[in-house]
Amino acid sequence: MRSRAALVIVLALAFAGAGLVERDRSPGATEAPSAGYGRVAPMVASEDVLGSTWYCAAGSSDADGPADHTVVISNPSALDREATITVVPGTADPVTVVVEVPAATLERVQLAEVVEAPAAAAMVEIDGGGVAVTHELVGPTGADRGPCASTSADTWHFAWGDTSVDARSLVALFNPFPGDAVVDFDFVTVDGSRAPQALTGIVVPGQSVVVADVGAEVTRRDQVSATVTARSGRIVAERIQSFDDAQEMLEGAEPRRGLAVDLGVSEPMEIWVHPGARLAEGATERMVIYNPGSSTAEIDVEVLIADPEWGGIEPFELTVAPQRYEVLDLSDQPRLAERFEDEPIEATVLVRSLNGVPVVAERVTIVPTSANGPGVSASTGSPLLGRSQLVVDPRPQGSEDPIVSLVNPHAEGIVTGSIRLLARGTDRGLEGFEDFEIPAGGRLLLDDLGDQVTAAGASMLVIESSRPLAIGNRTRIDDPADRSSGGALVFSDTAELPPDILASG
Predict the structure, then answer these.
(1) What is the pTM of this model?
(2) Residue 388: which of 474, 495, 298 has the closest Cα?
(3) What is the pLDDT of residues 331-351, one digit of tens each?
(4) Cα(222)–Cα(111) distance, rounded to whole angstroms?
(5) Per-residue confidence (pLDDT) for residue 229, from 0 to 100
(6) Cα dist. 339→328, 347, 394, 503 in Å?
(7) Per-domain residue ranges for the chain?
(8) Which one of 29, 290, 445, 470 is CB 3.0 to 4.6 Å from 360, fit for a cystine?
(9) Which CATH number fits domain 385-505: 3.60.15.10, 1.10.150.170, 2.60.40.1510, 2.60.290.11?
C-alpha cells in the first residue's frame, strides 16, 4: 500500500510537478445550505439575498501551467457589488483580493496576477445576489470557459473523459472550507468499473486544491466516466480535458487539439436539454450518457430540428446498465447524416429517462486539426430552464462566429420575451431583439451578434421570457484555435425543471 506521503507527491505532480504542502489554516467562510434546485446546476441568486458564493476549482496561474485561470464576475443587477476573491494556490496560503463590480459591468481577475502556482482555485464571495461568476482557461493546446459552482457537494459525476495517448484528463478537487475532506474516485471504462488505490482516500486539506491526473491511473482509454465522492467534507470537482496533436496518435486516428473545462454534475437528472447543437460534415458530435446509480436506465435521445421540412426524427433508444455508460455518435447515424450532408443543421438534443432513473448526459464536439475551425468542446446541457437567464460575454476576446440559441421546448404555446445587452454600466435592448416570440418547438438563433457585442466590449445578455426557455451558446476561438460551448445561467427565482412533454420539432 502506498504511504500518504507518496500519494501526496503523485497528486501534486499533476500540475507541472509541484508538491502539495499541508499547513495550518485560519477558518474561512462557511457555505449556506442550498435550497430548491441548488444542487442541480449553477444558478444566479436573486438580488434580495444578503450574499452569494461561487467556487472556481480548475486552472493554473504560472507560466508553465496547462490552463491559465481567469475569474469573470458579471453583475447584471442595478446595484453595485463588491466581490471578495480568495485565491487558493495548491502549495501556499490563500491570498484575498477585493474587486468592485459596478452595476451592468463585467470584471476579470487573472489569478496569475495574484499568485503563482501550478494549481489555483478561487472562492468568490459577493455582498449580495444577482451576480454570476464564470471562468476562462487558456493553455498551450486551447481555451475554454464555463460556469463556476454556486454550491459544493459530496458527490460529483463526469460522463466523459479521455486518457488516450494524445489526451490528458485532470480533475481539480477544491476544498474551500476549514476542515479536511477525504475523497475517492470510481471510474467506468470499456473494461468495467475500477477504483485505483492511488485515487482512493485522497486527503484534500481545508482551503486547498488538489489535482488528480486521471491518465496516470486509467491509461489509454478513449472514454472514461467517473464519480468523485467525498466520504467526509464537501468539495467542488472540475475536469480539464486537453488534446495535443503533437503527441503520438493511434493508427488511423484523426489528429485533434483543444482544451475543455467542465464542472462535474452533483445531481443526476431524468431530463437533459442540449440546445445549440450543430451537426455538420467533418465534426464528431457525441452524446455520452452515464448511469452512476444502481438501476438500469431506459433512455431516449431525441434530435429536434426546428424546420418543418425535415419532419420528425425517430428517437434513439439506449439501455444504460447501472454504473455503466453508453456513447451515441450522432455524426455517424444514417438517419441524421443524410440531413446534414449538404449543409449543417441546428438542432436541440434531448436526453430523457423513460423509467425515472436519473443519469448524466454530456455532449462532446470534436473537430480535427485537419478541418476548418478545429477544436474540442463539452457541455452537460441544461437540466434547468428559466424565465430569466444570463449569457456571459457571448463573444469573448479572440473569438468569432458567436451563436446563441433560444429554444421553446414547450409542446404548446408561443413564448414571448426580450433581450438586453449590458456592458460598461449601460443597459439597453439588443438591437433587433428587444422583443421576440418563439412558437412551440421553435428556436431563435442569434447568429449575427458580432458588431453589437464587439462594440460594447465585455458584455452580458439578459434574456427574459414569458415561459422558461432552453438556451445554449457556442463560439469559435482563434488564438489558440479551439471551440467552446455551454448554456445560459438561470436566475434562481425563475428556475424550473424541463416540461415532461417537450415539443417534437
Answers:
(1) 0.91
(2) 495
(3) 999 888 777 777 888 899 999
(4) 32
(5) 98
(6) 17, 11, 28, 20
(7) 1-266, 270-358, 385-505
(8) 290
(9) 2.60.290.11
